[in-house]
Amino acid sequence: MKKMVGLGLALAMATSLNAQQGKLGLTDAFVDKNMNDAVAQYRTLIARVPAGVLPRTVNKSDGTLVTAKSNSWISGFYPGTLLYLYEYSGEPDLLAEAEKRLQLLEKEKDNKGTHDLGFMLYCSFGNALRLTDNTYYQNILLTGAESLASRFNPTVGCIRSWDHNGDKWKFPVIIDNMMNLEFLNWASRISGDSKYADIARIHANTTLKHHFRKDNSSYHVIDYDPETGAVRNKHTHQGAHHESAWARGQAWGLYGYTMMYRDTQDKAYLNQARKIAAFILDHPNLPADGIPYWDYSVSGPDVPRDASAAAITASALLELSGMVKGKESKRFLQAAEHILTSLSSPAYKAATGTNGGFLLMHSTGHFPGNSEIDVPLSYADYYYVEALIRYKQLLAH
Ligand code: GLY
Question: Is 3 inside any structural domain?
Answer without folding.
Answer: no
